[in-house]
Design goal:
heterodimer; A: 183 residues; mainly alpha; two-stranded antiparallel sheet; B: 52 residues; 0% strand
Chain lengths: 183, 52
């Protein structure tokens, strides 16, 4: 089946790929370095997944302003959660939680990414307006969008499995050091 | 309090998108956000020593 690729569709697919990259990097640090995510870290992941679902809705259900609104709402929620965690470790001498990437902890990167996604959506609106690209009501069903969808769904499923293993059927420890169900 | 619930709801949302069920997808997205916010307020208990 041929894939209809408007500018908005391509930018939404790139947005979902970006969210998948964020989730994949978090998973790499969890699996390769054995750093278990704290409750706030997990909630930031859930926020990024909610952002990704907004991009996914635009891809698979057709572009709609309400889908962009969902992306912005989820970005605000994610940004607020990460800002709270940044505030917890803001005091001088606080080593922060977990390892750092390029000098910044992951919750700081999450805050930067949440603000960046709001800017990205603004950029999509501007580019669509400048190029005269209208919202496409036609869902993307081609192999590329299906592959991006599958990668995202796989990462969501992996996060579900990982969280069940880490926390069981309850709330996680504030500073988890081992998987609850693998003890 | 089920920490995995937001991920379960999101995965169900992805599945409903795959079946092109828009209404159910929106409902599951809303539930994902609502549970995430609720869990956040449950966990955000340490006082912040800021004054503005």
């Amino acid at each position: 089946m041929s894939e209809q690729r408007t500018l908005g569709a391509i930018l939404n697919m790139l947005g979902l790929l970006g969210i998948s990259l964020v989730l994949a990097v978090a998973f790499f640090y969890q699996l390769a370095l054995g750093e278990l995510p704290c409750p706030l870290c997990l909630l930031q992941r859930a926020g990024f997944i909610a952002i990704g679902m907004g991009f996914l809705f635009n891809m698979r259900l057709g572009e709609r302003p309400s889908h962009y609104a969902m992306i912005l709402i989820a970005s605000l929620v994610t940004g607020f959660i990460s800002m709270r965690q940044v505030s917890l470790h803001l005091a001088p001498g606080d080593p922060g939680y977990g390892s750092a990437l390029l000098g910044l902890h992951f919750y700081t990167w999450a805050l930067i990414a949440a603000v960046g996604i709001v800017c990205y959506v603004a950029l999509i609106f501007v580019l669509k307006d400048v190029t005269g690209d209208c919202d496409s009501a036609v869902p993307m069903r081609g192999p590329t969008s299906s592959a991006v969808f599958a990668i995202f769904a796989l990462l969501v499923a992996a996060n579900l499995l990982s969280t069940v293993l880490e926390c069981g059927a309850g709330q996680c420890d504030d500073n988890p050091v081992r998987y609850l169900l693998l003890r | 309090m089920y920490m995995f619930l937001p991920f379960l709801l999101a995965l169900a949302g992805c599945a409903s998108v795959g079946r092109s069920r828009a209404g159910l997808s929106y409902a599951l997205w809303s539930a994902t956000i609502a549970v995430t916010v609720a869990w956040f307020f449950h966990h955000a208990t340490d006082p912040l020593k800021f004054s503005f």
